[in-house]
Amino acid sequence: MTAEPDSALHADAARPSRREQILQAAARLFAERGSRSVGVDDIGAAVGVTGPAIYRHFAGKDAMLAEMLLRISERLQAGAEQVVAAAGDDPRDQLAALVAFQVDFALDNPALITVQDRDLGALSADDARQVRRLQRRYVEQWVAVLTALDPDASTPACRARAHALFGLINSTPHSGGRLSRAAMVALLTTMATAAATA
Amino acid sequence: MTAEPDSALHADAARPSRREQILQAAARLFAERGSRSVGVDDIGAAVGVTGPAIYRHFAGKDAMLAEMLLRISERLQAGAEQVVAAAGDDPRDQLAALVAFQVDFALDNPALITVQDRDLGALSADDARQVRRLQRRYVEQWVAVLTALDPDASTPACRARAHALFGLINSTPHSGGRLSRAAMVALLTTMATAAATA
DNA sequence: CCGGGATGTTAACCACGGTTCACGTCGGGG
DNA sequence: CCCCGACGTGAACCGTGGTTAACATCCCGG
Predict the structure, then answer these.
(1) Which residues contact residue B136 at a Cβ distance below 8 angstroms, ignoring those fewer than 6 apart?
(2) Is DNA-binding given among the entry's keywords (chains A, B) (predicted)?
């Protein structure tokens, strides 16, 4: 769908501004080493400038991380809302749409997947709360579909199932990437669907 | 099986020495905030001593993390070897044994699960290599069983499946814990088995 | 041609945190 | 009794790294 990895950060994917270059480079570095272990000099070097040049574009390192995580969770939440609405009324179709959406996102943005669940704790209290609110809304869409599929299951059980499915699909960053994208899509979709309808 | 969480660290679980107390407290703190974000003073305070007292028991902060991760991966690898051997020759039984083992470990040691896949990058090159070697041996046991179950699947595909199953089962730290342990065991076992045999 | 805003650079500042040091306490064996 | 090793403490040391300051460059609109 998109040419370069982790492009979900791009507001304007066509001609990435210096600001967007920085965000994407930071996402890659954060995913590799963790946000606390990567210096502003490293981020600058990754885009060909020195460290302090960053401050022409961002208030600070934590502001970069905050914008990164807010964009991701916003994009996931909005995307899920959209694909569910487009899937019609059958919960099975809705589940298929959510799985396809999450699989695509995980394969397109491996670094963002890693950063989101690893560096949430590095955010300020306010930013963390906002990200968690968006994440919760995303999870609740899954919970609603899973509940419709299995009305006998309790809400906490559906929530646990949703998290298990996220873990399954988001395993891509750990899987090396020896498989073609198409093969990974098929593999993850099959496994997730089987796990969800067990 | 064991009373307190993350007890897999204990060499002698009966009367935890000060050294073991420190390791376990550090594991909990590392899981909550990430190893880079927790200070030596924090670890000391968690066991009722000051920061520098740590150096009576460990060479340094990185040595603590190294010992922690080495013990975990050693324990997982050895445990998997044992339960597979005890499961007989049927690959279905072997898979069930591996799933049960991993589910138990994930539910008993949520903090260790989190630390292991988040702070591997904080290790020295030598320690990281050793941990990765143990992890690889663990994964290969899963790959062997998955290959026996589905001889048509390629090795990379089986490896990706194994990682997907790890992600599914290791989702426990994200699931809050509103469900009873028994319910989580049933839920994760069912989902993992369905995903593995899809 | 000129002034100003955008963008970078180098050097300096400063807080944080891992580590070391010198010293205190306490319990047990010679 | 006393000495020694184990275990802790508070103070100091010092590298790392985020942030700011002061000074260039370049480009564009008037």
Answers:
(1) none
(2) yes
